[in-house]
Amino acid sequence: MSRTTKPGPIARTAAMLIVAGGLLASTGCQVSMNGQNLPSPYYLQDDIQYFPAGPEFKLSREAAALRAARAQEKLDRQ
To answer: Superkingdom, according to UniProt (predicted)?
Structure first.
């Protein structure tokens, strides 16, 4: 009769640690450590998102509408 041996608890734990370490090393995600947001290991290869600068005065349409309303009010008074 041949006797099959099961791996011991130390061998199983070591195998699980190796698999867990491989999974952790293969994923790239943003992490938060000690209050810092650290980028993924692949941040240099990521495509850059560019958002062009908007107008300095963000309420230009509202200001134009107010000027037009004031001008119309002046015309109505006359």
So the answer is: Bacteria
